[in-house]
Amino acid sequence: MNEKLGIIAIIVESNEESVVESINKLLHESRHIIVGRLGIPYPKRNLSLISIAVDGEQDQINALSGKLGMLDHVTVKTTLAGVL
């Protein structure tokens, strides 16, 4: 097994309902690797910041990050650490 613990940082530069629904759908589909989620709306810049704590196979985490990153108006960065 290649399990990792990590954080997926998401910047959402749109409040369009379709973007939010797409993000929530992907997160729901990957709920088995999600440990926690923190969402921060930032009206000053008209965007939202989301931090997702994940624990799972590296391929699963990378797949989720990749799918999120392909959405319009969404920027994603992922940091992983090996499970100790």
UniProtKB/TrEMBL annotation:
InterPro entries: Acetolactate_synth/TF_NikR_C, ACT-like_dom_sf, FeFe-hyd_TM1266. Pfam families: TM1266-like. SUPFAM superfamilies: ACT-like. This is Putative iron-only hydrogenase system regulator. It comes from Aedoeadaptatus coxii.
